[in-house]
Structures are given as structure tokens and as C-alpha cells.
Amino acid sequence: MIKKILKNDAFQSLFASLICIVLGIAIGYIVLLFINPEGAGEAILEVLKNFMHYSKTNLQIKNFGNTLVKTAPLLMCSLSILFAYKVGLFNIGAAGQYCVGICVSLYCALALGMGWVPCMIFAAIAGALYGAIVGLLKSYCNVNEVISGIMLNWIALYSTNMILMNVKDSTSPYTYHLNIDSQNAILPTLGLHNLFEGNERVTIAIPLSILFAILVSVVLDKTKFGYELKATGFNKNAAKYCGMAEKRNIIVSLMISGAIAALGACFLYLTDYEQWSCTSAAVPATGFNGIAAAFLGGLNPIGAIFSSYFIQHITVGGSYVDKTMYCAQISDLISAIIIYLCGFVFFIKYAMNQLIDKSEEKKALKAKAIAEANTQEGGDK
Amino acid sequence: MENQYAIEMLHITKKFPGIIANDDITIQLKKGEIHALLGENGAGKSTLMSVLFGLYQAEEGVIKKDGKEVHIKNPNDANALGIGMVHQHFKLVECFTVLDNIIMGVEPNKFGFLQKKEAREKVLELSEKYGLHIDPDAYIEDITVGMQQRTEILKMLYRENEILIFDEPTAVLTPQEIDELMHIMKNLAAEGKSILFISHKLNEIKAVADRCSVLRKGKYIGTVDTKDATIEELSAMMVGHNVNLHVKKEECTPGEVVLDIENMTVASKMHKNNAVKNVSLKVHRGEVVCIAGIDGNGQTEFVYGLSGLEPLVSGKITLCGEDITKAPIRKRLLSGMSHIPEDRHKHGLVLDYPLDYNCVLQNYFKPEFTNKFGFLRKKNIREYAEKLIEQYDVRSGQGPITIARSMSGGNQQKAIVAREIDKNPELLIAVQPTRGLDVGAIEYIHKQIVAQRDAGKAVLLVSLELEEVMDVSDRILVMYEGEIVGELNPKTATEDELGLYMAGAKRDEVKA
Ligand SMILES: Nc1ncnc2c1ncn2[C@@H]1O[C@H](COP(=O)(O)OP(=O)(O)OP(=O)(O)O)[C@@H](O)[C@H]1O
Ligand SMILES: [Mg+2]
Question: Lowest-confidence range among B91-105, B280-294, B362-376?
């Protein structure tokens, strides 16, 4: 019975993810110990506590809302990566597609004064087209999607910096706030903010992102389209043999992946939680963290909901670490260590299976030895 | 008394979900003997060998080498004990060269630098010695299945293993190559190596093996001296009843033309010349046309061109009066083409999909299996798979939900054949349809092919197997170096004559 549970795939994924998390926290703790042993315990607690840092319930709830606001884009990025991964593609370009989403949504909102719906639509289209470039290069020129993705990430970053220059004050690197110029570009809250002590950043983005996770799960598992995509991912040659348009599938899946990432950007930037800094020197980490979230979630869209939340939780939690004891970057370092360890889910799963096999073997050997001993005894009598 | 056994596997039991693949099996391999392992598809032969090679751990039983108990936990342990294996489905790295694949893991080096030249000489020497004819610099993905097989054999010879496991080595070789391999195996045995040899071909077993152990549905049936047993006895022992080794069929009555190929030319991936040159042929309703030839004479590329996997350089293909020269693959399939591919793992199956998903690989979009909103009708897919499994006796651990990868090679093949024939095509292209099947299954598939013919379908059979060619077809076209060099009537032609054409020693001008 227990063995059955241990060998169950879903259980293993979950268990492996938990081990990764614990390991990550442990290593993070050790690093803190090295830097400054005094505050280590407290610091790691802060990371885990995140919004519980505050003692007042209303502040806790409000800040919980903030973590959720930032989870939505991360979840979208992890869905984007996961989706492409099912087709056998490693869409590291999600970070760039996310960046394109920021650029287009903010430009549409601030320069063109559009409402949030057209902003999202245009961002999604742009993200899809950006993803299509990777897909076209992959299927027609056989360019590896990782290479072209990374290149395009940089192009996206600098284009975004350049284009969004037009929607900011000359004195500040940040783009305008949405609430001054274009109220109607802000995502509606539908009363959700009331649940979070009036945190206006809590918008429909959060339920929408969860809806997307369910949608992706349904598309992959239940539809003809998902059947084709996964077949292409598992065996390109067989997909071709049975008449699936495998080139088209590669392009389409990267387009969808790009659109999801770009929508993720809308989910954050159209809440006015953040503004884009036109002096950014790197694409937002959300796109890359999406990789960790996807793997930590066992490459399952529903799992990604929880893993995205966790990763966001510790990322935000990191910012509460006492800055007098540790340098300002410590929060990033700790969350990075934990996120990094999250990438080891599959390794841990493998190691677990090995362990199970070994213990079974030992048991068998023991049983045999006992049986042999018994027969010998019998012989002696 | 000195131990006469090189390897003993005693009371081995290995279970998989839903099935006991090996149930208390005992086999003993004498030193210097060739020991054949015979059994139906899914009987557990590969599993038993994988236990010996350390790929699986048996739940019960002991393995002894030279009388001493050994624990083989992984292939490295096996290698250290001098056990080598050629797998039923090769384990080669596609994007590496033949040479790289052979020396992988045991690369000769000096101060950490690769000594490829040395390795190359040794490989060439071995290749020469055993007549394996390989090109060490060719990439695996570019060479035929036959050549990949030879690479695997060389890999084992290169490692100087003493106990050699051949899991269906001859399924993909040509008759000439099989003769050579038999010769090699005898030489190796004479040199003192001990060989375990799995084959479904009883005459091969008769020809080389000293003894033969038979498995049936995971159970050990018995071991016989091959010289005392007849082919009929062996097959009865294996299947449990008598098998008719020859196909009975009525006179063929060809109808109108179904497939018309004019001057087809297909480029080669391996060399600059075209692999298929100016081939013209017609296949009529109600006849089985066979393309015979030695592996690597353009049959693979011919089928690729015909099925649309590769574009044509020139030529025209007409299927049921419709020009499909440039048609995409889906269109060809929908116009009534069925294709049992040569390489079941590369093209035939999505190994990580369950069996039921694999059964609808070309039909999943039809209304029975997908509703109008684009959702799969999983229940229908499952039921359809159950029907095929039942009808074609596809054996697996968990029925429709078995992951294709875990099925035995022969049952994977049966699943493909079932899927392709059940589509009820106008034209059935069958490339090596019975590769790796047991005699009972072969009998069944041959009957199915003939039944297709009798139902007025056109069948194009591509086979390397002389017996199959002579038995099943109504008309034989011999392909040599990408050209059709002769047309023979299986009723009047002899195997020797066919062999001459296949070797390029004889040729006629053939008019389509
Ligand atoms: N890894 C696995 N997981 C689950 N079931 C397996 C696995 N490997 C083999 N089996 C099952 O064990 C049985 C025996 O398989 P095996 O491959 O040993 O057959 P075989 O005798 O080699 O047949 P063939 O002649 O078709 O190659 C089959 O029913 C197969 O489905
Ligand atoms: Mg086998």
C-alpha cells in the first residue's frame, strides 16, 4: 500500500518538489550563516514569513494581496514555458515575450490611451508574433530555440527601453503612472480589492491567471490540439508520419507560449503595481523564474499555480530581511538559491526511484536469506 | 567437477504492472555454446535478457557466472563480467558517428586525449574480419536499420565481451547478412564465447543453436537439443499448437490500377547520387506487389517518397486516379493510403503515449474520436483500442493504457499493423510488416494482407525476407541500387534466381 503511494507519479512529483524546497531553504540558511551567523535564523524566517512579517492582520492581508499580484505574471510565464515544453521546446524566450508584453501594453495605455481590453489584446498579439519568430527560425532554419530566444530577449529589452522613453518624464527613468493619465487601462478589480483591505492592485488578473492554468491543462490533456502538440513533442518523426503539420505545430505552440507570457506582463503592469524603468539593463527575472516555477510544479499547469505562488512568496519575503545585517542583494540571493534548487525536481524524483528500488532489493535479499536459513534449519533436524 | 556453465539464471521472476513477464524461469548457458531463446511475442525473452544485462532487477532468482553467484545491478556490472548485449531496439546516439557510438564509454585515451586513430583501426579491423561493412564516419541517423544493427554488434565485439546476448539480431538483416552473422556467431562460439540468441526464425535456430529454451507467456516450457527437434516441433512448443508456416491463397485477379508511379526519383541523404532512380510501377486492385531487394538499395527512400516523408526530385504519383505527387501526408492518408513503416520507433509509434492514443494516431481528428469543439472522445478511443487489441491479439501489461514504450517489440509491431489494416485502405504499403513477430503472429498478419488483397485492395509489400516475398506476393519487383531491375512471378521463379537479381548479377529491362 505504502509502496504503491511511493511509486505513484503524482505523489513523487509533489514529494520531490517539497524536498527541493526544504533543501533550498537549508542551503540558503547555511549561506546566511556564513555571511553573518547572528541574524541567519531570523532572516530565513523572514523570507518564509513574508507578509506575516506585519503584526496587524489588515497589513498582513494587504501584503498577501501584493504577493498575489506578483504571482499572476509569474504563473503566466511558467504556463508559457510549460506549454512550449510539452511540445518539446525550451522557450527561454518567454522572458523577452514578457518584455514585449510590457512594452505594448504600456504604450497602448499611456501613448494611445486605450482601455485595458485592447491593451491586453495588442500585447498578446505582439507576444505571439514575437514567439512566432523563434518558431519560424526553429522549423524552417533549424535554429535552436534557446539561442534565438536569448538573442531576442536582448532585442526585446532594448526596444522596450527605447519605445517607452516616449511615455515618461524626462526627469525620471520610470514610465508614467496609469492612474493619472489613463484610468481605463487599469484592470478592473470587480470588488476583489475589498477582500484585501482595499488593496487596489488586486484585480481580475489573479483569477484570470488561474483560469489560464486550467485552460492550459484542459487544452493539453483533453483536446485534439493538445494531442497533436504532445505527439509532436514526444516524437517529431511520428507526428510527421501521421500527417500532423509538425512545423506548423511548433510555430503555433510558440505563438501561444508568447501570447501567454505577454498577457502575464499585462497582468502586472496594467494594475499599475510597477512602472517600467527605461534604463533597465536586463529583462525582468519573472520570465526566467517561470522556468523554475514550471519545473517545481512538476510541469503540470495546476502544479504551476502553487509553485508560482511559493516562488513569489519567498521572492517578496526576501525583501523583509534585515538590511542592517545583510547587504541589500541578500533577498535576491536567498530566493535565487531556493529557486535554483527547484530546478532539481526531476533529479530528485530519479534519485527517489533508485532508492525505492534499492530498498526493495535489500528486502528481497533479506527475505531470501531468511528463507534459506529456515530450510537449512529444517535440514539440520 | 568443473562447472560447465558460463551463465546460469535460476528461478528468475520479474513482474511488471499487470503482468508477470518472467515466472520462475531457469536457463543455463554452457561455455562455448549457442543457446537460443524462443517464444511468442511478449513471452518475456527480452525481459529475461535485460535482467541478465542488469537493466532490470529480478524480484526472485539468482544469477551465477562460472558457478559463482553474482549481482548485476546495472549494465556496467554486466560489462565488467564480460556480458554484452545487442538490444532489440538499438541504443545508439543518432547524431554521433558509427565510430563514436562503438567506442563510447570505453574511448581509448592517452593522458586524457582521445586516441581515435587507434580505435578506428581496431574497429575497421573487426569490421573487416567479420564482414560487417560499416562506414565508421557515417552518422547513425543517416544509415539504414541494418547498418545500425551491425554497429551494435561491433560495439559488443569491440568491448571483447565473452557472453554475448543477441536480442533478435536477424530481424533486420538481409538473408546474405544473416548467413554471414550465423557464420560469425559460430566462429565466436568456437573461440570460446558463449552466446544467447533470440530469434523468431526457426530455421536460424536450427542452423546455429546447440540448444534451445522455450518460453510461453512468461513461463519456462523446456530446453531441447536443436539437432533432435524439427521446426514443426519447435513452433508447436512455442505457440502451444501447430502453425501453418505457409500462406494459402487463391489465384489473384488484378483489377484497375490503384497506384501509378511514373519515373520517381528521390534524393539520398547519404550520398550525392539519387537513392531512387526513375522508378515506374503500377499496383492494381486485388494484387500484392512486392519490392524485394537487399537492404539499402533505395527501398527506404522509395517508401519515404511515396508516403510523402521526403519530397521527390522528379516523377509523378497517382493514387486512385488522383495526382498526389505534391500532396501533404495527411491528404495521402485520407485518400486511402496506409503505411506500416520500416522503423516502428522512429515513425510508427509515439512511445510515450499509451497504446490507445497510438491506435488513433492518424484518425484522432475524425468525428468518432474528436467532437466538434475539438475535445477528444477518450471513451471512444479506448473502446476502439480495445477492439484492435482483442482482434489482433496485442498483448501488454495493462491493455489500452499501457505506455507503448513498455510493450514487447513484437506487440508494438502488432499494434501498428492492426492500426494500419483496420483503416481499411485502398493502398496498403507494408514495409517489413512481420519484422520481429513470432510464427503465429506472422501467419496471422500474412492472412490479413492476403485478405486485404482479396477484398480488392492494392498491397505494396516491401520486404527483405525471401520467404515472405515468395509466399505472400503475386508479383515481385526487384530493386537494386535504386532501380527496378527485374519483375518475377513468385510461382515460377526460384529463390536463387531472385537472389541473382537482388545481388545485381542479373537484370532485365522492366516496363511498368
Ligand atoms: N518496462 C516495462 N514495463 C512494463 N511492462 C513491461 C516492460 N517491459 C516489458 N513489459 C511487459 O512484459 C512482457 C514481456 O515483454 P518482453 O519484451 O520480454 O517480450 P519478448 O518475449 O521480448 O517479446 P518480443 O518477441 O515481442 O520482443 C510484455 O507483455 C510487456 O508488455
Ligand atoms: Mg523482445
Answer: B91-105
| Cβ–Cβ below 8 Å for B362 and A227 | no
> What is the pTM for the complete model shown?
0.83
Task: Report the CATH number that the domain containing residue B146 is assigned in CATH.
Answer: 3.40.50.300
pLDDT tens sequence across B314-357: 999 999 999 999 999 999 999 999 999 998 899 999 999 999 99
Residue B101's nearest CA partner among B153, B176, B36, B44 is B153
In this predicted structure, the answer to whether residue A107 has a pLDDT above a threshold of 70 is: yes
| B329 contacts in chain A (CB < 8 Å) | 240-243
What value does the CA radius of gyration of chain B take, rounded to a whole number of Å?
23
Q: Which amino acid makes up residue B255?
A: G
CATH topology of domain A2-380: ABC transporter involved in vitamin B12 uptake, BtuC (1.10.3470)
Query: What's the pLDDT band for B401 if we cut at 50, 70, 90?
Result: very high
Cross-strand pairs, A19: none
pLDDT computed for residue B510 by the predictor: 58
Shared domain check, B320 and B438:
yes
Q: Does B38 map to a domain?
A: yes
Q: Report the distance separating Cα B99 and Cα A95, nearest Å.
A: 41
ipTM exceeding the 0.90 mark = no
pLDDT band at A375 (very low <50, low <70, confident <90, very high): low
Number of domains in chain B: 2
CB contact under 8 Å between A241 and B347, yes or no, is: yes
* Ligand 1, atom 27: closest residue by C-alpha: B409
B244 within domain boundaries? no
- Are B221 and B322 part of one and the same domain? no
What is the number of the ligand closest to the CA of B415?
1
Q: Which residues of B touch A239 (CB under 8 A)?
A: 350
Pocket lining: B39 vs ligand 1, CB cutoff 6 Å: yes
Residue B340: closest CA among B361, B355, B326, B319: B361
Last residue of a domain, one of B190, B213, B239: B239
CB B303 within 8 A of CB B310: no
Where do the structural domains in chain A lie, given as residue ranges?
2-380
Could you tell me if the CB of B46 is within 6 A of ligand 1?
A: yes
More confident residue, A322 or B511: A322
Most ligand 1 atoms within 8 A of CB, residue of B216, B358, B407, B416 to mutate: B407
Chain A residue numbers with beta carbons less than 8 Å from the beta carbon of B415 are none
Q: Is the CB of B440 under 6 A from ligand 1?
A: no
| Domain enclosing residue B186, as ranges | 5-239
Q: What are phi and psi for residue A188, nearest 5 degrees?
A: -70, 150
Q: Please indicate, yes or no, if residue B250 is contained in any of the structural domains.
A: no
* Domain presence at residue B110: yes
What cell numbers appear for A25 in the block? 531553504
